[in-house]
């Protein structure tokens, strides 16, 4: 991406003219929508109106001149910038009859996302994932299996020591929809015991993720009273595209199922080398795009249909 043009806050070029806004350093589409339109969730309207110069939210740079939806802005700004003082008041411009579809998770999360890693720990790839997360000062959530926790207790210790959260992904990566509630509970309980053994003390697991997203009645019956089931908003499908890193990146950042459209919880697997290969680019792109990356447990309480 070209180096964004740096614009001093005091330069005249930042003064709005009719229906436009010049991007300042630190702006995001959400903050522009909030400050100029009065509603942060209207950022897709700005995106749509400027698709000729802005192909993706992370391409936003200081100095860009964006068109704004007609008939918007704070009342004082509209009066000063859209009507010459010597002319009669213009009739109010009508809004489009069909508003653009708004994302159901970016709006609720205020561009807060969380990275989750399933199926580990893995003796080779999990340490590499942890190192990349450390380089970006990002905390994530690892949904581990009990079997892997027993095999690699030092990695369980490292995950916790470096400030990440651990979630329960069952002991054998079982499809809980095919088990009884008691069998499903045993899967969770054995994983809890494996994590406690690895750490040498009890670790309170507040999040579970059923393998294959099998979050039906059996899973809910097997969960503890203070636990949350965490599914995902965005699926990287890293496991599927072992030799196509570009496709994994596209799954995350492009289209109607991307982080820009859905936000929230992103699903990865820390057992695959392709996940390691793309992770640095993913984190750089999220951070440059103005996303706030948090541990999943820090987002519990926000409105998100995939956290139950």
Put the structure in a nutshell.
This protein has 308 residues and is an alpha/beta fold. It has helices at 29-37, 43-49, 75-81, 106-109, 125-135, 146-151, 153-161, 181-199, 217-222, 245-253, 259-262, 273-288; strands at residues 20-22, 65-67, 112-118, 141-144, 165-168, 207-208, 228-229, 234-235, 264-269, 292-293.
Could you list some keywords that capture this structure?
308 residues; two-stranded antiparallel sheet; 2 domains; TIM Barrel; single chain; alpha/beta; Membrane-bound Lytic Murein Transglycosylase D, Chain A; 6-stranded parallel sheet; disordered N terminus
H-E string: EHHEHHEHEHHEHEHEEHHEHE
Number of helical elements: 12
Classify the helix fraction into a percent range: 25-40%
Low-confidence segments: 1-18, 73-108
The span between the termini is 38 Å
How does CATH name the architecture of the largest domain? Alpha-Beta Barrel
Structural overview:
With 308 residues, the chain is α/β, with parallel strands linked by helices. The chain folds into 2 domains: 1-82, Membrane-bound Lytic Murein Transglycosylase D, Chain A; 107-299, TIM Barrel (Alpha-Beta Barrel), CATH 3.20.20. It contains 12 helices and 10 strands. The strands form 3 sheets. Strands 3, 4, 5, 8, 9 and 10 form a 6-stranded parallel beta sheet that branches. A two-stranded antiparallel ribbon has the order 1-2. A two-stranded parallel ribbon has the order 6-7. α1 crosses α2 and α5 (125-135) packs parallel to α12 (273-288). Mean pLDDT is 81; it is low at 1-18 and 73-108.
């Amino acid at each position: 991406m070209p180096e964004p043009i740096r614009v001093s806050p005091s330069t005249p070029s930042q003064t709005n003219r009719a229906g436009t806004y010049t991007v300042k350093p630190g702006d995001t589409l959400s903050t522009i929508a909030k400050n100029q339109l009065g509603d942060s969730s209207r950022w897709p309207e700005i995106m749509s109106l400027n698709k000729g110069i802005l192909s993706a939210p992370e391409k936003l740079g200081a100095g860009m001149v964006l068109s704004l939806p007609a008939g918007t802005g704070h009342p004082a700004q509209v009066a000063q910038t859209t009507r010459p003082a010597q002319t009669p008041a213009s009739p109010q411009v009508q809004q489009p009859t069909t508003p653009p579809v708004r994302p159901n998770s970016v709006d609720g999360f205020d561009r807060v996302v969380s990275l989750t890693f399933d199926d580990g720990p893995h003796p080779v790839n999990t340490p590499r994932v942890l190192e990349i997360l450390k380089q970006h000062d990002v905390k994530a959530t690892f949904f581990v299996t009990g079997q892997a926790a027993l095999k690699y207790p030092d990695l369980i210790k490292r995950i916790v020591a470096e400030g990440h959260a651990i979630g329960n992904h069952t002991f054998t990566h079982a499809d809980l929809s095919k088990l009884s509630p008691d069998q499903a509970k045993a899967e969770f309980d054995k994983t809890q015991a494996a994590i406690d053994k690895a750490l040498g003390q009890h670790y309170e697991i507040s999040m579970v993720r059923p393998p294959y997203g099998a979050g039906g009645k059996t899973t809910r019956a097997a969960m503890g009273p203070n636990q949350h089931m965490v599914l995902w908003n965005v699926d990287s499908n890293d496991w599927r595209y072992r030799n196509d890193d570009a496709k994994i990146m596209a799954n995350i950042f492009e289209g109607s199922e991307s982080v820009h459209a859905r936000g929230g919880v992103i699903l990865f697997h820390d057992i695959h080398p392709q996940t390691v290969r793309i992770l640095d680019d993913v984190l750089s792109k999220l951070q440059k795009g103005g996303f706030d990356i948090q541990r999943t447990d820090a987002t519990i309480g926000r409105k998100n249909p995939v956290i139950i």
